[in-house]
Specification:
The chain is built from two helices and eight strands, in the order E-H-E-E-E-E-H-E-E-E. The chain has 129 residues and is an alpha+beta fold. Strands 2-3-4-1-5-8-7-6 form an eight-stranded mixed sheet, covered by helices on one side. The radius of gyration is 15 Å and the shape is globular.
């Protein structure tokens, strides 16, 4: 069964947003990396991957998928068969936004929201043993 594993937020200030989610809710830092036209800081509460994203420019096509300013950019669903789900997304009126071979396949649902499908295990959320 598919399950939600990821939530990505566009933020204005990476350090301020990190401190907020650490201090208020206890999220912990997993990794920070550049991904194309933005920097993503992945954090977790032990169950979900929370990505805080700062784009180089609001005029970046990917930054504009969700609109200008801080907001939810997309959410992610873990699936067993990415190719099968990609076809189903198109069949039911969704639009694929990223390259088919992308590790996180972004799509726009018919209602306009942006999400992604990923293979199981893409996001590390459990506390190391």
């Amino acid at each position: 069964m598919a399950r939600i594993v990821h939530l990505a937020l566009k933020v204005d200030n990476l350090e301020d947003a990190t401190k907020f989610y650490e201090d208020v809710f206890g999220f912990r830092h997993v990794k920070t990396a550049r991904n194309g036209e933005h920097v993503s800081r992945h954090m977790t509460d032990g169950n979900i991957d929370l990505a805080l994203m700062v784009y180089d420019s609001e005029t970046s096509p990917e930054a504009d998928w969700s609109g200008p300013g801080p907001r939810i950019h997309h959410w992610g669903i873990e699936v067993e068969d990415k190719a099968g789900y990609a076809e189903k997304i198109k069949q039911y009126g969704g639009t694929i936004l990223s390259r088919p071979e992308a590790g996180a396949l972004k799509f726009r649902a018919p209602d306009g929201t942006v999400a992604e499908i990923v293979a199981a295990g893409r996001y590390k959320t459990k506390n190391p043993a």
